[in-house]
Please model this.
Amino acid sequence: MTTFTNIPKRIEDALEQRSAGTSRRDFLKTSGVFVVSFGAAAVSPALPFGVVAQGEATAGPYPEPDFRELDTWIAIHENNTATFFVGKTDCGQGTGTAFRQMMSDELDIAYDDTSVIMGSTDVTPDQGGSGGSDAIQRDGWPMRRVAAEARRVLLELACKRFGLPVEDVEQLNVSDAVITLKSDPSKKLTYAELIDGKQFHVTLTGDNVNETTGTAAVKPVQELRNVGQSLERYDIPPKVDGSLTWAVDVKLPGMVHARNVRPPVVGAKLIGIDESSVKDLPGFIRVVSKGNYVAVVCEREEQAIDASRKLKVDWQKPAAAPFPTSDELYAYMRSATPMSSWDPDVVGDPEAALESAATVVEAEYDFPFQGHTAFGPAHALADPSDGQMTIYSNDMKSYGMRRGVAEFLGMPNDQVRVVWMEGPQAYGRSAADDAGFEAAFLAKEIGRPVRVQWMRDEETAWDTKGPPYTFTLRGGLDGEGNVVAFDYKAQSVDYNHVGYNEAETVLIAQLIGTRKETPSAGRATTPTDLYAIPNRRVTGKVVRLPAIWETPLRTGNLRDPNGPQVTFASESFIDELAAAAHADPIAFRLKLLTASTDDDSGFKRARSIAVIRAAADAYGWDTRVSPKPRDAETILTGRGMAYAYRSQTVVAEIAEVEVNRETGHVWVKRLVCAHDCGLVINPEALRGTIEGGMLHSLSRALHEEVRFDTERVTSVDWRSHPSLTHADTPAAIDVVLVNGDPNPDRPDLPPYGAGEAVCKPLIAAVANAIYDATGVRLRRVPFRDERVLAQLKAAGV
Amino acid sequence: MSNVTLNVNGTTHTVDIDPSTRLLYVLRNDLGLRGPRFGCGLGQCGACTVIIDGVATRSCVTPTSRVKGEITTLEGLAKDGTLHPVQQAWIDEQVPQCGFCQNGQIMTAKALLDRNPNPTDAEIREGMARALCRCMTYYRIQAAVKRAAGGSSAADAKSGGKVVGS
Ligand code: FES
Ligand code: FES
Model:
């Protein structure tokens, strides 16, 4: 059976099969260019079987598929295969494969006889797209339940066909989409025969999509066959052989190209545009501008790039500088007036405990702005044909984009659709949102399909950022080295944090000036650990930079938002306390974890202890105090660990480093991750996700910092904004899946969100390893060579 | 505009373009290829890599008029329906996350192995160094290069992951 790998084709093929052979494929070849016509995707799964009104469908509107209809989720085809329609997107962690594994198990069909379609707003139910690492944890459940319901309905149909009362369903066997009579296995019916070219016509219940259910129960874990297996990801071969059609590849008849022209100084006001500077350039179509938003539209892509660079625009600088320089950022943050703050979370009496402590440790940590910085810049193609708006985008939240664009353009929801296709991933609220709105705006203005793509400098400078933090921590130890007090204060620049696909905060809305009245409060979050400390206070505040609108230093969710920052500070500080207590860092943490026996229904304390032990075992941890005694060698080595949880997933990571005392260069030679996310659907895909998440965090630890002067961001490419490379890659990465399948230790545990938890502890683990190697504590990210060297020198290392 | 002739994956194409146009746009927009992609346009990331006469070349900074030789793109690596060993190694090692950079990784690795069929670990790091990946799949890429080179069972990347309790 073909695995449908090319997204538009996949959608077309599946719908084609669903519609009993009516051909609706329409691939046009025009002068060697691959043109995709998207008639098929417009067909609502809710349409009666076999009724395909292509003209009507292409023209829209595109009503939202009803999650309470079984047919929205599953189609059984004449060749006894199935297609699953789910409202998620796969950012490259293999969730699409995992959905097929779970749903094929519940439906009792061979994995290879299934395909999945994701994230196109008119053909898949709205499950929100991706985000929060909740694809399996939350969204997998309705998928499993609807697949179980489909199986139940098919068994019921089989009872009727075999002339059995429904109560006698036990007399039937079902395997690989074939139902047989136990008493006479020669009597069989396939799912395709049972459905017989029709649809299920079964209504489901549930107040919202997450609660969608039929009456069938899901299978116990022990009966799942594909779940727990490392099946190969179906999306990989077409990514490797060049056959995948990505969102960047879609071409439509009459399509034109646009490039943005951003204000050269943040907060500048548009005074005038000299269109004569570009109007004679080849292929020039139009300059589109509104407020401070400017774009140039041309026939060909390279023409648009050229024209956007040559366009003469008069800008008026703002009266006041939009922000301090990146070097002044932390001093600015520490003296700024908070915009948002929260009551501290207090246990015991931390002040009194600090007062009477035998030893008090105090430290400040700093964490810079960091970007998503997608490998390929933000892009989208918008088609305004027939008074509708179709956007081809890799944005992980296609449903949000549909609603946001409809609001932004003042169109009804059902006249906008977003077709999700694969693209460079950036993990969170990236500029893919912004590009989708820009393409739609320009398409409406021009009246032709418009493809917009950001340039590298634009992506690196103007993409939304993860917020910078400053931290002040204090800890108290008693005479025996027990932690008696912990005081944590965090401060972030996160005021006016932008949400996903918000019509009033996307960049084009900010530049046009149609922005919301009240900026969001932002967040400054607190550590996630289960250390039993009798006196504890954690508190957060949010400050702002002078410019909060039309600024490239706008903050938005970046992979495990706030987690890497917060855990860098808290888990570095626990190490500082361990050193002050002359204790081994792991023994010290285990003592803090075992000092209480309170646990939750997910056994998070017990599992925290288990992952730390598993990481120590896998690493071969030798119990001793940090730092390690230094020898005279140029290369100093050391190891460090950190632990955290996110939701119910617990993670412990160990880094082994080599630090060159002459250059300050840090190489993380080995990484170990012990990971427990409950039930594992696909161990190999999970390992890939863990490796990628750890190395992304390593890039943030060693390299990434958005730099700026008082007028603009100066990180604009891969030289001014370095990222991890092959040369930085550890020689060994060991991943221990503590609750790994196929024989989970705890089959009673459901699956939890696996990906983002990995990002929390890594930076602290590296800092702790550098301390172990050198005795020097790095309290500011990133650990670039020159900064490390300066600190080594200052410490006389 | 003028006619420029290009030999791509064994086929000759003539396109009517401004000859200074960077090769990447011609491959993508005139010839409809999907392997080479835009990542930076500055020669810094490798997304746009094609092989011209055996040399991994960044098509985003290459004027089309300068190209005289035979161009191979990702689409041209497979022969008679069989994937190139580098591509197969990429599947065996389950390398990509989002996959957007993998054209650059695969084409750079192919040119590297053609030059040096048995690279050491250091030569792999060095030879691949300028091909960036933001999903940070480097560890698996290096295992896949070793596998394609016929080195040790490349699953070093995987065997480290042990399953407790099985
Ligand atoms: S796109 Fe050519 S090197 Fe980055
Ligand atoms: S796999 Fe996503 S950029 Fe490399």
Q: What stands out?
A: Confidence is low (pLDDT under 50) at residues 152-166 of chain B. Chain B has two domains: 2-76, 85-157. The helical segments of chain B are 23-30, 85-92, 102-115, 121-128, 138-148, 156-159.
